[in-house]
Amino acid sequence: MFRRNCRPRWWPENEPWPPRDARGQWRTRRGRLIRRVAATVLIVLTLSVCGALALVWVLATRLGFIEPTAQSAAMILLVGGMVGLAILGLGFMTVMRWVALPLTRVMQAADRVAAGNYDVRVAEHGPPPIRVLTRSFNTMTERLQQHDRLRRDLMADVAHELRTPLTVIQGKLEGLLDGVYPRDEAQLQVLLEETHVLSRLVEDLRTLALSESGALKLQKESIDVGDLARDVAAAFAGVTVDAAAGLQPIEIDPVRIRQVLSNLLSNALRHTPAGGSIHLRVGESRSANPESAVVVEVQDTGSGMTAEDIARAFDRFYTGSGSRGSGLGLTIARSLVAAHGGEIHATSEPGRGTTITFTLPRSKSEV
After folding, report:
1. Which residue has the higher pLDDT, 3 or 158?
2. Residue 347, beta-bridge partner list
3. How far apart are CA 251 and CA 228, in angstroms?
4. Residues 6+ apart with CB under 8 A from 142
5. Architecture of domain 221-361
6. By CB distance 3.0 to 4.6 Å, which of 314, 323, 337, 340 could disulfide with 319?
7. According to CATH, what is the number of the domain 145-213?
8. What is the pTM of this model?
9. Three-state DSSP string of 196-260
């Protein structure tokens, strides 16, 4: 299976060939299995042809078509053997062309994916089951490639976001040590604010990782969302709250929904100029089943967003023009709302403000 002169071009130069690790042992077992299956198929086909010829000879002698002599038996076996060998050869070539070769291509592509090459794709050939396997393999490889790209982008974005406050802290500390800046309370306050930026960024990344991996645990309790909205809005100047009367409590995690509201209101304040307004509305769903969900809207009269900005508003680390945030607020809000089984979306027009709407569905026991 593995000869010294059959080393693949994509095999790393610093690794021995044939491979000696667990993956190489699996390849060796795979080759041995293929040879055994092929030998078994040939033996079964050969025995089947011989049995068929013997049956034909017996029937022919019983019916009187030929004399039951050794010469006739030898002639039948000779002619039948030649026909059988031809059928076996054609069958073997057909099996190799329609089954073994497409399956081998998938296996070779799987080896390349295991080596870290996610660009590989396999053409769909062979019988329907092999085509389905090939299609599933290509889909899996495409998703692996996408996840690998997202991982690389995330690492680059995290490094970029961490570098800015760290650079400020390092510069301030070096200036204080060199006597460039006075060692007073004002300088220490700047350093403290930058550490707060780092702390918020790390906590946001942790929350985002937990929610997207499904490991975030919600501590749900029966909460009046209107009261929660008024409590959160009290910490933001200029925010008006309109909560529907008689709103029934809902089972949610108040800490996480408070975080969602805080992120949305902070984002609205950053994009609303002086003299603008921000409205926070809480009400029941207007769908056919009005008690199925609670709807929360955060509407501002800020600069608004373009269609491209709306399409990417909930992507991690995406910031529009003039934005001063980290680009995680809306991403975390979407993840936390999704963890509650709800949905969130944005509507906006440039120069006419933005409205962020999310829903919190009620459980069947609450309806």
Report:
1. 158
2. 355
3. 13
4. 121
5. 2-Layer Sandwich (3.30)
6. 323
7. 1.10.287.130
8. 0.58
9. HHHHHHHHHHHHHHHHHHCCCCCCCEEECHHHHHHHHHCCCCCEEEEECCCCCCEEECHHHHHHH
